[in-house]
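HUMAN:
Sorry, I am quite new to this. Are you able to go through these amino acid letters and fold codes? The numbers rather puzzle me.
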Amino acid sequence: MAEKPRECRARVTAIRALTHDVLEADLAMLEPPALAFDAGQWISVPFGPKLVRAYSIASSPRASSVLTLCADVAPAGLGSQWFRGLAPGAEVAFKGPLGGFVLEPGDQRRLLLVAEEIGIVPVRAIAHELAAGGFARPATLVYWARDAGWLVHDADLRALARQHRGFAYHPVTSAEGEAAGVVERLVTDVDGLVAYVAGGEATIKAVRAALMAKGMERKAVKWEKFW
């Protein structure tokens, strides 16, 4: 169960480049020594009195003493420059955990997970949390990217699908269509279905429209907008 948001401090212990533009950072918690959060939540890093940037937590809530953050630094803005500048030993101040893009306790509906590029970070965290419970509720993941190089967690998710019969994985690139089109083809029945969509606003709206056209209630589509 997540804690209420609080001011935190952590120390960077490792930096990994998943691609030229996608980086991961491991942060060992200092204060508090562990942070309880739910898969799908994020932290907020301050850059001024009214200027912050949000980073989804990529790691498991089951390892709450070390947080892993993952970011697309291609935009080259303030947050991207900060993330690129992180190095082992650096101390980071942030507020967290934040966000409601999480599984609802007791909800047993079938899951449709849709991620666009870096939107995979909270979605993958949710998928791994479901895997830890043996996928008691079936889940389908549609992971869209402009090309195969942006499917940064493809190998991990393929392995997860091989290990769990309750998890279906569909990686898609722009050459194969848009995420909403894939969802429209895959989803034949929206009864007992809840969707979690993370990525750009256009993709979120298109996926939601495709599902609502099949009779899904608007409130059954949860979303996390990255841009």
